[in-house]
Amino acid sequence: MSKYLTGDKAGITEFIDRFDVFLFDCDGVLWSGDHLFEGTVETLEMLRSKGKQIVFVTNNSTKSRADYKKKLESLGIPASVNEIFSSSYSAAIYISRILPLPPTQKTVFVLGESGIETELSSESIPHIGGTDPFYNRPIEPKDYTAIASGAALDPSVGVVLAGLDFHLSYLKLAYAFAYLQRGARFLATNTDTTFPSAGALFPGAGAVSAPLVAMMGGEVKPMAFGKPSQAMMDAIEGKFRFERKKACMVGDRLDTDIRFGIEGGLGGTLCVLTGVTKSEKEWEGEGKEVVPTAWVKELGDLRG
Known about the structure:
Blueprint: E1 3-4, H1 9-17, E2 21-24, E3 31-32, E4 35-36, H2 40-49, E5 53-58, H3 65-74, E6 84-86, H4 87-97, E7 107-111, H5 114-122, E8 127-129, H6 141-149, E9 157-162, H7 170-181, E10 185-188, E11 194-197, E12 200-203, H8 206-215, E13 223-224, H9 230-240, E14 247-251, H10 254-263, E15 268-272, E16 294-296
Helix pairs in contact: 4-5
């Protein structure tokens, strides 16, 4: 049973004292769009003053870690790049250091924004697509012929990486589909179907990869690197070197954040109701697999 902590000072103290590390989702937990939730800065300062390690873990691939640092600081939240772990960074690490690719097929075709491109470049991974204006246009008759014949395709592409793309086009999907048909590996920064902003839900990165899954007959699905993928948890643990039982995941989504912490064997999970999850009724009742250890109405409630 999940423990309700809002207004319970003794319960909050006991909960915080159980952990050395707090992993924070960002969108829907710390802020929504450009709106910082009340008490966020003070809560993070309180945890730091108690010697807790803070790690910002985000599935948002549109921003690089450096971009996220700028956003955090613009909202009054001190942070270093090393405290930030994004799905785009996780994917870049996997492609550069783990994924076995033929020497002649090291290029990544990107469906996504500059955050992915920046992290790929940081690992010296060649990439095309993404924000290149060539792909952000309506498809033309000559494109069909060039793609079908292979004349328009880069033979060095060995990976299709899908993330949240604000400029998704039919042409981009056509190129991605062609590369997948020719054997490229299918990866995704994350498969969140939606993301919260301005108090509402909008299409997420999962909505970008979903058409490709459908085109491939539903049998081929991307390997994802965002929460709840344990590939991401392993990478975080490898970087920050913490004891999982002394770590807590804080998030607003049951299917990604809370599942991520539970399946990762963390000591606890904390759900806030300022993002996707709006009520404790979403995890109450028999047969519910994903139940947070504790919950609060908003992160600022941890101030007691």
